[in-house]
Amino acid sequence: xxxxxxxxxxxxxxxxxxxTALAYIQWVERxxxxxxxxxxxxxxxxxxxxxxxxxDVVKLITKEGVMPPHANKFFYLAAPIxxxxxxxxxISVIPFGTEFTVLGHRVMMQLTDLNVGVLFILxxxxxxxxxxxxxxxxxxxKYSLLGGLRSSAQMISYELPMSLALAAPLLIAxxxxxxxxxxxxxxxxxGFIPKWAIFTGPFPQIFSFIIFMIAxxxxxxxxxxxxxxxxxxxxxxxxxxYSSMSFAAFFMAEYSNMVTVCSVATLLFLGGWHxxxxxxxxxxxxxxxxxxGAGAICLYHGLNPARPFDRxxxxxxxxxxxxxxxxxxxPPLVPVLTPLFWFLAKLSFxxxxxxxxxxxxxxxxxDQLMSFAWKFLFPAALLNLLVTGFLxxxxx
Amino acid sequence: xxxxxxxxxxxxxxxxxxxxVVQKHPIASALSLVGVMASIAVLYLQLGAEFLAMAQIIxxxxxxxxxxxxxxxxxxxxxxxxxxxxxxxxxxxxxxxxALMASLGFAIMRGFPGGGTVKFDSFQGGTAQNIGYxxxxxxxxxxxxxxxxxxxxxxxxxxxARKEMD
Lengths: 396, 166
Known about the structure:
The complex is a heterodimer. Chain A is mainly alpha-helical. In chain A, the strands form two sheets. Chain A has a two-stranded antiparallel ribbon with strand order 1-2. A two-stranded antiparallel sheet of chain A has the order 3-4. Helices cover 66% and strands 3% of the residues of chain A. By secondary structure, chain B is an all-alpha fold. In chain B, helix 2 (26-47) packs antiparallel against helix 3 (50-75). The termini of chain B are far apart. At the A-B interface, helix 4, helix 5 and helix 6 of A face helix 2 and helix 3 of B.
């Protein structure tokens, strides 16, 4: 009974935080790309456009859902549900932080710790193709069919280098449980270099990290590999015919997949919630200092406003940042919140890289995409796995 | 709880298997087959073979069936029409099915006497370590022979495809 109640509470918290975060990642993306291109980005709805995601949700819900006349009704409606379901379910095995005790109950910062967690994520992501492929086929539109075909071919091709790149750090960690993998990366070499998979081991996993990230861009259909929705060739690819909430479902699935692959990269290669430098050198103070610094910057710009309304909005943000900093520095909460901070910091950095690359790189051509996967990425991943396996066997 | 899930997923597996045969559209049939694979994976999971369950989903429900659906979409196969049913098939079908099932059941009962009952979670050797160890010690030869077989199949496919291209 206790287990069920705790799980339900965790489920509610994680679902709420994840869904809100998905909406706001889109806001961050629009803002970052706008600033890269020297524009303002969303700025009308709420201060700094912060209520824009809310407005978008209201807009999408109240829009009319159009059903194209010759679509296959059942699969047309099932595809977005399948896509968003498969995208959201993988968050259930991802650990965010250490265990802690509240009111005598031990609580893990994770919904469930499977001993085949990595395989579960691979399985779910390989099932995610169906949503996109079916959407393209069921719309009965040549552009969406092309998008669906491209997407399934691309996801099958890039799944191989991705799985091979994932296998290499698993050889070093010696377990398939995500929590176990993170635990195996605790500690420091020479007293200050973290034992993350990309820095340590018989063979630093920096190559498989890069291969994994490249394949992750293709798996999530992001620029530079967003061929399935190439606007100038395919209108919008597999979701041309979708509107209203079913369009929103595909959007959510894409961003949720991004969060999943970035979490996996964080857990397998970047040491999960282990800090960048040891606690004895004050890594516990990083979180409050960074947040307090952000608060101080907001306060400074609020007192010297560039735009009239900054006088009111920026001090409010400063108060929020100072409050978070105080929470992070509050001694009883430090062992709970500091790991969470480090995990979220690495996750946000990787998500920022996704957005950064979208703002920077042009799209690949389709034949370039395929030959890159099969002629370069796949042999490179294979070679990396071979060298890692050989060195691991040699050392042990 | 275990029994509830067992009957739920066993029912889904059988229902999807029937649906594979009954559905008129090839895509619907292929997706029903995905349902069969996925629910069988859940049954593996209940017996305690986690690695096998995940491999089942990744390989069969994921990779193999995605390729099936890819090909069906590429060929743009439409719904099939029923051909006129032959009387003989209608008359002989059900009795032959029962006879096949009965002979299969008989063969299994004879071939594996005293197999004992299967219990949930009773299987202990289902972790990735166990399976890897078994594959590379006791079953090394079959494993390697299978990989050579697959390599030959890949080469054959490439040779056939090249002949078409020239």
